[in-house]
Structure to design on (50 residues):
């Protein structure tokens, strides 16, 4: 019984680690989107100056 419970706990920990990695990837994607939006805004600013 104890071994089965430990196995389940380890699986939950794995799931939590995967979720954390996914959250970090989400944050990275959001940061990338924000950088792209900043570039787009700066490009619009350049076009307006012309």
């Amino acid at each position: 019984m104890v071994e089965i419970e430990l196995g389940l706990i380890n699986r939950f920990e794995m799931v939590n680690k995967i979720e954390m990695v996914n959250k970090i990837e989400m944050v990275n994607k959001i940061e990338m989107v924000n950088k792209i939006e900043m570039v787009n805004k700066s490009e619009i600013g350049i076009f307006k100056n012309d």
